[in-house]
Amino acid sequence: MFKKIKYNLVLLVLIATINACDKKDTNFSVSSSDGHVTVKLINEKGKITYALFKDEKELIKSSEISILPYAHTEIKGTFLNSENKTWQPVWGQFSEVKNEYNELVLNLLIENVTAKLYVRVFNKGVGFRYELEDYKEGVEANFYCEYNLNNNDALYAPNGERSPLGPITIEKLTKLKKQPKLMTPLVVEKSEKNHLSILESDLYVAPEFGTIKFKFLKDKKALVSTNTTKLKGAKIKTPWRVILIEEQIGDLVTNTIPLNLATANQIEDASWIKPGKTLWDWRVHDYKTEDGFVYGINTESYVRFIDFAAEKGIEYFLIDANWFTKVTKGHFEITDKLDLEKVSNYAKESGVKLILYYDRHKGDYGDEGLFSYFKSLGMSGIKYGFMGNNVSFTSDAIQKSAKNHLLVNFHDSPVPFTGIERTFPNAITREYCHAQQDSRRAFTPESFIKMALINAIQGPLDMNNGNFDLIGINRGDRQKGPKKPNSYYATVVSEAARTLIIFSGLVCLPDAPEAYNKKSDLFEFIEKMPVGKWDESMVVNSKMDAYISTARRYKEEWFIGSVTNKQERTLDIDLDFLKDGKTYVVTYYEDTEETHGMKNPEAYQVRTGKVKKGDIIKAIMAPGGGHCMWIRPE
């Protein structure tokens, strides 16, 4: 391994030296350690451009990159870095993450400002970052980056609480009168069978830049991203501008480059941070049990949730809105139907942790005392609603939560704070997507697959998958949706699979304990599934709008979930990732021949068998359906 690193470093030095001699310090090049990904940079007439290549194919043509608008840039020198290490996240899709890259650093003089441009090249992508010093306060900085793509390259993007945008070709963008609002992470589907994702990482070090903004420049026929701020202080770093490269679109979701570029863990003792599953009361209101009990916002309902969580080993119970009636500075008025102290004590005795919702629209308690107050109530986390897209405000909330040993779950169009779960692992999840049951026009089998392949690239998602009482929900039995009856298109098996496919540090289960008990053999898949403690994760099948299969390993056990769109489908699941010479027991959780995502959503079957490495499983799925497997050594 040492010889390989040394060889790559020597090669980089040679490339840089040859380019410098031949081109008079205007051309530079840096490649990944495996040699497949290359970034070439040119400084011409005071402007720096880059081009991105994979295996000598040009993925992004010559594109401008800058930090101070219209300023003349000189390259005063270069140096090279290389790293090949591993590190262990507190929780995540992997128990160990490899950080391997080659880096070219350009020492710049931009007008009278001293700067550095970092170009960090990984085997599966690249990151760009500027560092500035010796500037006058008040100078406007704009981290400007072009992406000169081919006309037939297609874009996909998140779309708030709607189905994601795309495909939109570059050629189509040139003809549109009104440009669509493009959000991070952008996905680029290229004709060369490569997929790119454009996003940013490590907003923590530079919240003043705000989140990345995209626009399309018709005159240049180029996509552009920007972050702007007024410079202050002695020195500043920008967030990392990131471009991921994968052949299969699903692999973008498990690409670890954004995590590698994020600031390392800032919590000295993170032993209190535990990922897990949580029950949730919000979507269960008005659910009537067979013994006549009706769920609501009250002590009796919450005791039932806590009992079920304790029985099934579910770590958390999340109490959502309306537990309070009014908020003023430093004071919550709690509904008289709820004895919150009794619920808190009962949960503690039962070994279940509580998470409590706060909605700034209902009144401003004041953030200085909010998190310590939640801690005083015995809470283990806060679900924060309506934060707004304010990076500094969000960063402060994460850090104040951490000081009070609170997990934090951001809702309602939060900041896509990619990589923050490494820096502050108490940032357990966020609703950077459309959660289920709010609007069926937006949440369909197709849009779920889109969100799983687009929105999920930016980090853990809180999507509230796992409804089992689909007939009752479609009938309109619930107080909280869906707004339109008979519009929920899914099968109970696809609901179980979705809880695995969407990665999160907190898997939020939205249905009633009784609904899960009625299908306890299917609920077993969710019950046995660890959350956020994965040793290994991979997307084994993926196609936009059509299907996705995800496999995750915990120790020697594998959990595999697949879903399809409204077309019935059979996918081959190749078990080549199992160990040689071992026999495994597998439990299948499947749609039946009678299952249908709208007409017969609750039909399913559970069976067991044995498998070994190299076996190919036929995952047969109904329209809107799914397929799950729990595999463990015999």
From TrEMBL:
Range of residues in the leader sequence: 1-20
Q: Which Pfam families match?
A: GH97_C (PF14509), GH97_N (PF14508), Glyco_hydro_97 (PF10566)
UniProt xrefs under InterPro entries:
Aldolase_TIM (IPR013785), GH (IPR017853), GH-type_carb-bd (IPR014718), GH97_C (IPR029483), GH97_catalytic (IPR019563), GH97_N (IPR029486), Glyco_hydro_b (IPR013780), Glycosyl_hydrolase_97 (IPR052720)
What are the residue boundaries of the Glycosyl-hydrolase 97 catalytic domain, all occurrences included? 284-431
Name what cofactor the protein needs: Ca(2+)
Q: Which SUPFAM superfamilies match?
A: (Trans)glycosidases
Q: Where would I find the Glycosyl-hydrolase 97 N-terminal domain in this sequence?
A: 30-262
Residues forming the Glycosyl-hydrolase 97 C-terminal oligomerisation domain are 533-631
Q: What is this protein called?
A: Glycoside hydrolase family 97 catalytic domain-containing protein
| Species assigned in the record | Flavivirga aquimarina
Organism lineage reads as: Bacteria, Pseudomonadati, Bacteroidota, Flavobacteriia, Flavobacteriales
